[in-house]
Amino acid sequence: MSTSNTSKHPKALPFLFLTEMWERFGYYLMLGIFSLYMLDSVQNGGMGFSPEKKSDIYGTYLGLVYLTPFLGGLLADRLLGYRRSIIVGGLLMAVGYFLLSIQGETAFYAGLFSIILGNGFFKPNISALLGNLYNAEPYKANKDSGYNIFYMGINIGAFACNFVAAYLRINYGWGWAFAAAGVGMLLGLLIFLFALKHVKEADVIRPMEAGDMSTSRILLFTLVPMFIFGILGYLIPGNLLGTDSNDAFIFGCIPVIAFFIYLFMSARQEDKRPIGALLAVYGCLVVFWAVFHQNGDALTIWAEQHTDRVPGEITGKTLNVLNLSQNVTNDSISRLSSEDFATHKKSIQKQDSVLKLENKSSERLALAKTLKAQTASRKYFQNLPQAQIPGEGKSLKLISTELYQSINPFWVILLTPLVVGFWGVLRRKKKEPTTAAKIAIGLVITALSALVMVGAVKSTDIEHAKVSSFWLVASYAVITLGELCLSPMGLSLVSKLSPPRITALMMGGFFLSTSVGNKLSGMLSGMWEKYEDKSHFFLLNCVLALLAGLLMFAMLRWLNRVMKEKNII
Question: What's the pTM?
């Protein structure tokens, strides 16, 4: 591997940083508009799903997209290597985004499948490859900061993508926004090709050792049962966990979880304790992701329906110049009752059917834009105080909902140097917390972010007034601190504790915990409509994160002993 004794970080880091930046540009662009796209009507170019179906698909997608890294990590360790896996995964993800740009259920589900499969090959292996680069002696001490820097690259992409998504969605439609995600992924792959010479020696296919289960047997005893259990979960009469897909997903995870338990039970003595420690951490991380990924669903709905999105003067002028404003107009349509608006929509649909028969595509597009603007106006004015509603025929310019998805990555970019510097100061004073302690701290901070949203709900009567954007900005700032203590540290811990021959597989286990947490986030979001008092929803998130944090602190002494045995503390 390419090394330099005068550098704190490997030469490949900038290339991997930029690769991940563009990959996450595409991924978070898609995720930032995913819920809004599913809720938007077919006439507006969306899918027209109900809120319940939207949350179900959102959680299932997020669950599956982080379940497949288990398989991608296994195949990379045993057969393909990291470089090939990353390239294959990136191409599959690009195809998926381009498929989403085509309206229709067939293209929609095919696109999701391609992204899910592609992420399985890409995500665990670029993280494992980075960890291998830091195993060289000049870099070992800087592994935590290396992952922090890498993580900042993720969030530069996540920050920029929402502006692109908003511009393309407002001015050209959903399809152009999804296509931009595909272009971003291809740019990431192009940059990765320049990194190949710097990562060659870190891309090691690990041979099987005595006692290891063969790849075919692992697939036979995990992949096949996963489908069988999933089908059984889907066919169970009634719903144990709310919907058939929830039952299918959780049941389908059981064989994979059982495999990791088997991996622990059958490991050599020197590997048993590190694997056991990682599995314990994975259990706590499930809760973090369940709370964190409310950003793409519950918090997106909060931003659209309950947040005062009228920008300040400078922000408003900037959005106008960039053509990123969303207009809502106070007219007779926006004041219709639910029943009358439903009748109005049916009338629009009939007009659309006639125009479709006459092959008048430009007129259909104009009609769809009109209905979309009317729907947005009605939603925004529903709980806006009368004094803030403009006069008849007047418009308000709003911050587009997608742009709120850029708050979290903005804080990551801003806070990462401060967090890395803070840990560096503590390291020089020999007071730096262990990686496991940082994860525990991150969970407690995550709980505090949910309390900020409890304050947002309590700050006003949300049924008759909007809440200041600063509540979301503050909540994202707090949860970002928790994220920086936890997510890159989790990747670092996996790289440190994993037995070398199964590093990517254990990285897949890390993403399995993310997968289950993501599915739980969709299940939690599905409860949003059931809470009349939305503060109870956020309080539930707070309690869950706090309990996970307390569990991590309870295990801390044992985890630190395991890390000390591995000489990484």
Answer: 0.79
